[in-house]
Design brief:
With about 300 residues, the chain is α/β, with parallel strands linked by helices. About 45% of the residues lie in helices and about 10% in strands. The longest helix has 16 residues, at about 285-300. The model is unreliable at about 1-5 (pLDDT under 50). Keywords: Lyase.
Length: about 300
Amino acid sequence: MTSAAPQRIRPWHGILVATALPLRSDLSVDFTSYAQHVRWLIDSGSDGVVPNGSLGEYQTLSDEERSRVVHTAVEAAGDGDRVMVGVAAYGSTESRRWAEQAAEAGAGSVLLLPPNAYRADERSVRAHYAEVAKAGLPVVAYNNPYDTKVDLTPALLAQLYADGSIVAVKEFSGDVRRAYEIAELAPELDLLAGADDVLLELALAGAVGWIAGYPNALPAACAELYHAAVAGDLATARPLYRALHPLLRWDSKTEFIQAIKLSMDLAGRPGGPVRPPRQPLTAEQDAMVRAATEKALAEGHK
């Protein structure tokens, strides 16, 4: 059973963990461990989960696996509003199909990257989000200009909000100055911290949620950090942020999946290997993540 929590008017608020997907040694998905992990995250202070995001290695999943991940997450969460499904795809029609599947499974919202098969212009971006919004679920835009080569600037986000296509943005650019411009251009558009290592800065700038990676390994400590940050309790947030930052910054690195899964393994959670073409961490990277994780655990951050 999952712990009861007050119903949120906007289910994309709060801590939503971009779930890592436990894999067995043969690289098959361990759905039983995944269900247990989703329940554990919610019982440990997270408000919800984001399956089939980049951390969930959705690009390497078959259609059947990707669909089963969503159904597993919704069932394990016990409340579809707790689940924001990643619906990124190369084509708008395919993304809409995944959004419709998420709605049928009972999810409360979806997370959508811009078109990323090419460097899309503003007209294409607007059409893409409008198409997926037709599925009927609230759409959270995901701005990751590094990997997609498409930048959802504050002005473009304001236009997408005015179009009625999005309700919030997961902001991963790392430029915290954008928070203030977004608030000026689209005051009702909800800002969600999209990178672990700028959480405190974006929370102080008005973020109302955090789509997070490291709670997969340290959910209680991350929940404490988030709540202190959004409350402006710097006496609590700043030293905790400093203690966790050697790990949080891995969320913005190319090897973020491997790093978070290693931390999960060390914390006694089901992480496991990654699917190709991703490779294991180098010996140097492994040592850095291992040392930072063991230090955090030894200091009681779990």
